[in-house]
Write a structure and sequence with these properties.
2 helices, 44 residues
Length: 44
């Protein structure tokens, strides 16, 4: 069940996006982004 884009956008703005999971921060939802951010930190 996918919500219409306008509804999903409003949920994103409120921080209620269902695909993020309960109690999870957006940064925890994408391992590849976390790996990249950690790599940038170690690079300098």
């Amino acid at each position: 069940c996918q919500a219409p884009k306008p509804d999903m956008i409003s949920k994103l703005e409120k921080g209620e996006a269902t695909w993020l999971g309960k109690g999870k921060r957006p940064s925890q939802g994408c391992p590849s982004k976390i790996a990249r951010s950690k790599q940038k930190e170690t690079d300098g």
